[in-house]
Amino acid sequence: MASSLPTKLIQSLSDLHPKPSHIHFQYGTAGFRTLGSTLDSVLFRVGIIAALRSKKLDGRTIGVMVTASHNPEPDNGVKLVDPRGEMLEAAWEGHATTISNASTSSDLIEALESLVQTAKIDLSKPANVVYARDTRPSGPGLVSALEDGFKAMSATSRNAGVATTPILHYLVKCINTKGTKYSYGDDSEEGYYRKLSTSYKKLVAGKAVQPPLIVDCANGVGALAAEQLNEYLGDALQLVLENTSITTPGALNNACGADYVKVSQKLPPSLSSVLKPGQRACSLDGDADRLIYYYLDDRGVFHMLDGDKIAALVAAFIVELVKVAGLEDQIKVGVVQTAYANGASTRYLQERLPVKCVPTGVKHLHHAAERYNVGVYFEANGHGTVLFSQPTLDKLTEYQPSTPAQSRAVEHLVSLTELINQTVGDALSDMLLVEVVLAHKSYSGEEWNSLYVDLPNRLAKVSVPNRNAFRTEDAERRLVSPPGLQTKIDELINRYQGGRSFVRPSGTEDVVRVYAEAALRTQADELAMRVAGLVYDEAGGEAASRPKEFL
Ligand code: NG1
Ligand code: ZN
């Protein structure tokens, strides 16, 4: 095996994927994400980086996912997945950014050589990668650039085809744990569906079958996965799939999907003739890692059950099972949220459990959740999961229950560890989790919703010339820069009953986000609008982008 970089091969393949001179790329909270048509060079280079990351980790398999999630169809993106199915280690985000911005093929080789030096990569190690893409039209072209990157490094690659983001994470973890005592499952899509459907069936055995569930697939890859899952579930649960047009140009995430529902706080128009009062429905996002539930009440009024409501439902259920199992003193459940969590959810959870607030971005939530025995983390936007620590998993297997009730509760907990995707938020796994809890509690959407009453809230975004001028502290709840702006925001907040608002630069879009909540709907909207106005005035945005209404 070569112990130096194959520079000739890299050079010649890199010449086929030149970097656009005017663009600066950044590996952000969800990898690289921008217009798909500009990403060719990035994908080629990510192929090389994935191979180097694998070599650095002794040939363990690295995942590469090509997706732009809930973003519009012309966008695309790519992110790397570490061997345990987790997000890429933070230090490598910087390496990826530097390498993606090298202007020429020779600059690229220089940047790669420098990474090999600083990260002390043994180039004689093997490189293994597994990759997948969502249904975006720009996907196939970008994947072929990625494959050139693998070729440049002679990496062994496995194409997982068109798959959801959580399935790719699942595959990475399965491949890397295969044949060990920590084996996570069969490393195939079938293995994934089997694992989810089997544990679901165990968990709802003996319960009344839930009425059919309407699933808005955002016209994305979730449609394919949900269709498969539906077959594996058989009679245990019927999924009624909507928005499954994965080949209709422009349909992806358009007026449908989890982000549309969460941000507009509305039913996707395509479901208005489908959803009947009292029926449950949920929306996935474009790569099926976010999930939002909702229902119409008797008067036809729309009610949303977002990531915070899912966290509350699930955390309470797990706490109860742990208690019934007699493991209350040994297994502690905690919750992790971000500043976007509804204030009412935070209050509800804090009265019952330890709750931690961390900066936006899955890696922050995931790492904080790992510190609990059972860590429930959800972003308000519907991305989240539940992590069971290894000692907790061991405890559950070794535990000797002393009553049939204890024994049933432990079995349920073990099945939950199999149902819940331990690598990343997973809309399909989370959907089954919610269905399990609803079946156990005999809850309708309305009963679930009544756990607490959401404070009215609004999320807005402002386009500014330089979002990096906005810097935050205290888990992004306060601005430290631009100087003086936070004081002005505080003054505004104080004028609203139950007011809370904060401003932070987005990690995935070139905008600054504004969140506001207050006791009354009109006040939440007004507060968001006025804070957005302050941001705009401070940042000197273009007149056309001064917020007049919510985007
Ligand atoms: P940014 O663009 O940094 O706000 C958004 C979401 C995050 C996370 C990432 C990754 C909101 C307010 N922000 O990040 O929670 O999901 O996308 O997809 O929902
Ligand atoms: Zn997503």
UniProtKB/TrEMBL annotation:
The EC number(s) this enzyme carries: 5.4.2.3
Cofactors: Mg(2+)
Pfam families: AMG1_II, AMG1_III, PGM_PMM_I, PGM_PMM_IV
Record-linked InterPro entries: A-D-PHexomutase_a/b/a-I, A-D-PHexomutase_a/b/a-I/II/III, A-D-PHexomutase_C, A-D-PHexomutase_C_sf, A-D-PHexomutase_CS, AMG1_II, AMG1_III, PAGM
Role of this protein: Catalyzes the conversion of GlcNAc-6-P into GlcNAc-1-P during the synthesis of uridine diphosphate/UDP-GlcNAc, which is a biosynthetic precursor of chitin and also supplies the amino sugars for N-linked oligosaccharides of glycoproteins.
Family from the record: Belongs to the phosphohexose mutase family.
Name the record gives this protein: Phosphoacetylglucosamine mutase
Domain Phosphoacetylglucosamine mutase AMG1 positions: 207-291, 306-443
Alpha-D-phosphohexomutase C-terminal domain residues: 492-532
Gene3D superfamilies per record: Alpha-D-Glucose-1,6-Bisphosphate, subunit A, domain 3 (3.40.120.10), Alpha-D-phosphohexomutase, C-terminal domain (3.30.310.50)
Domain Alpha-D-phosphohexomutase alpha/beta/alpha: 61-91, 114-179
Substrates-to-products reaction catalysed: N-acetyl-alpha-D-glucosamine 1-phosphate = N-acetyl-D-glucosamine 6-phosphate
Source organism, top-level taxon: Eukaryota
Note on cofactor: Binds 1 Mg(2+) ion per subunit.
Pathway(s) this gene product operates in, as recorded in its UniProt entry: Nucleotide-sugar biosynthesis; UDP-N-acetyl-alpha-D-glucosamine biosynthesis; N-acetyl-alpha-D-glucosamine 1-phosphate from alpha-D-glucosamine 6-phosphate (route I): step 2/2
Keyword vocabulary terms for this entry: Isomerase, Magnesium, Metal-binding, Phosphoprotein
The keyword Metal-binding is annotated on this UniProt entry: yes
Species for this entry: Lentinula lateritia
